[in-house]
Specification:
574 residues, 22 helices, eight-stranded mixed barrel, alpha/beta
Length: 574
């Protein structure tokens, strides 16, 4: 047994019985510390005075029975497992105790079975503790900025929306959303290192926090970008005065490691209700102001104006470029191997789109996918990627080589389209690919936007035989509650968690909990972003099924994947 020392409260047993238990436990290498309690007063005082690993109780004794003890534990919110160690054999009596919270029942005299029952309950409590820690960490990671401890975007919007609802009740009240950007932060990072830049961001956050109160919320988005929401004003001049107060905060230099840093702030401001009645819209408008003014305006603020002809023109140009790219077949696919961590072989591949731009060269998804999503071109790109991936997978299938399955990413916009089911069915029918060889990968946050709709769509896809992968698991929070309801075949641990395996102990606890949870639910577990042997060793040790990352190889064209498959048939990770 893994628990070498145990501290037990023994209720309703004689000194001889307790001594015998101590001897039996000792022979198994367990050091037992115990206290006897044989009446209600002693039981209450023992529970109040000390913490116990477990409670071992006879069913009944003079003046008290197990049901009264269980009721007391519940009233004090104590989670200490109570195990009946009794000579009582009446089934109804035992069932009543179990229904009221007893953890187990062991026939008196069977000390080995009692040890196993205690061990199981302690392991269960430890798992629940680690899950609570993991849930708490995921919540903090999701909603609070690690560097400044300020609310992230989602929590900021939630708090600001509550203030907006109050503002809606008063017709003469206005509010302001401020998007704040530190000028020259990237230059400071490049010259002095990100450590200095991070300290600067923290100190600015401390200065900005002086204005935070019940009517004024501060949050951080990323890098040197902050957001303020101030309500309870009656005139735009008050927002102007507030912005001037913010600018004064950086008039005094920041002293870091005996160096003086002078920075400027660029502030975009949008007003409620004239510039929008939702916080997301107000923030977007405030940020858009900076897009077109920050190169000419330094250490000042600019109010949002609705005339955004230049922005519309730029969006039109992007749409035209993306459309031209599709017509000229400039979008190509690379494939990243998915490794079976038990055999070391390539078992699958993820299709990743690239834009072979005639002027800018080969562009990665982060350089154009968000623009494609904004313009709506992502739907046509996604359809083309789906068909080409299925065609390639069918070719591998017919020739008896290549990965056994292929994974295609589905964006939030595609998931929201009623044509998605039709596009998938059409791709499978046209190419003749077996549905079981196709995986559709969808980001956790996308699935959580409308859980009921996601469940309906995923069920239709799975009825076709297609497998579903939830990407970036562990970053969001709400999915932990809904996971058992979602028709998911594989959960994919996000790269941000994998990268911290060696450096942050709580991250390893989270990943272990995710793997255990997924396996308990009968799901495959996949980790992405594997870059080091330490990360690989940890995932193998904890029985993760699949992995992908640059440790095994970068995404490659289809013709370059087959040599990797052959090379991996040895099952080695060298």
């Amino acid at each position: 047994m893994p628990y070498g020392k145990l501290k037990l409260l023994v209720i309703g047993h004689s000194k001889t019985d307790a001594a015998q238990l101590s001897d039996d436990f000792s022979r198994q290498g367990i050091q037992l510390t115990y206290q006897l309690a044989n009446n209600l007063t002693d039981i209450h005082s023992s529970l109040d005075a000390s913490c116990w690993d477990a409670i071992i109780s006879e069913y009944a004794m003079p003046g008290v029975n197990t049901l009264q003890i269980l009721a007391f534990l519940e009233s004090r919110h104590l989670t200490t497992p109570l195990i009946l160690y009794t000579s009582v054999t009446d089934e109804q009596t035992i069932l009543q105790a179990l229904r009221n919270g007893a953890s187990d029942c062991v026939t008196k005299g069977h000390s080995m079975r009692l040890m196993l029952a205690i061990n199981r309950e302690l392991e269960h409590l430890d798992l629940k503790r680690r899950k609570r820690q993991a849930d708490s960490h995921i919540y903090r990671m999701t909603y609070y900025d690690e560097l400044t401890h300020l609310p992230k975007y989602n929590l900021f919007c939630e708090k600001a929306t509550a203030l907006l609802s109050d503002s809606n009740e008063a017709s003469d009240v206005i509010a302001a959303a401020c998007f704040i950007e530190i000028n020259r932060l990237s230059q400071i990072n490049n010259k002095y290192g990100h450590h200095i830049g991070n300290i600067l961001v923290q100190e600015l956050a401390n200065r900005l926090s002086v204005f935070s109160d019940k009517t004024c919320i501060l949050g951080r988005i990323e890098a040197g970008n902050f957001m303020f929401f101030k309500s309870g004003m009656t005139h735009a001049a008050e927002a102007q005065f507030f912005a001037n107060q913010l600018l004064k905060l950086v008039a005094t230099p920041f002293i870091i490691n005996h160096l003086e840093f002078y920075v400027a702030l660029n502030i975009g401001i949008s007003l409620f209700p004239q510039d929008g009645d939702e916080i997301e819209v107000l923030l977007a408008n405030a940020e858009n102001v900076l897009t077109y003014t920050k190169k000419t305006w330094l250490n000042t603020y600019t109010f949002y104006i609705k005339e955004a002809g230049e922005a519309s023109l730029q969006k039109s140009r992007i749409e035209q470029a993306l459309q031209q790219g599709m017509d000229d077949k400039e979008f190509i696919l690379h494939y990243q191997p998915v490794i079976d961590l038990e055999t070391g072989k390539i078992t699958g591949a993820e299709a990743l789109v690239r834009w072979q731009h005639p002027e800018l060269g080969l562009l990665s998804p982060d350089q154009f996918v968000s623009l494609a999503a904004e313009s709506g071109a992502i739907i046509k790109i996604g359809k083309r990627v789906l068909h080409e991936t299925c065609r390639q997978a069918k070719f591998w299938q017919d020739n008896g080589h290549g990965p056994s399955f292929i994974t295609v990413n589905i964006s939030a916009i595609e998931l929201d389209q009623i044509q998605l089911i039709h596009h998938v069915a059409e791709a499978l029918q046209v190419t003749g690919l077996e549905p079981a060889r196709l995986e559709l990968e969808i980001n956790e946050s996308t699935l959580m936007q409308d859980v009921d709709s996601s469940i309906r769509i995923l069920n239709e896809l799975r009825e076709m035989g297609v497998r579903i992968v939830m990407d970036n698991f562990g970053v969001g929070y709400s999915s932990l509650h809904y996971l058992r309801h979602l028709p998911i075949d594989t959960i994919k641990i996000g790269q941000s968690l994998v990268q911290n395996i060696a450096s942050k102990s709580d991250t390893s606890v989270i990943i272990t909990a995710i793997i255990t949870l997924g396996r308990d639910l009968g799901m495959q577990i996949r980790a992405e972003g594997i870059q080091t042997q330490i990360q690989l060793d940890f995932l193998q040790k904890n029985l993760c099924h699949h992995a992908q990352g640059f440790l095994f190889g970068a995404p490659v064209p289809a013709e370059n994947l087959l040599p990797l498959v052959e090379q991996r048939k040895t099952g080695t990770f060298a």
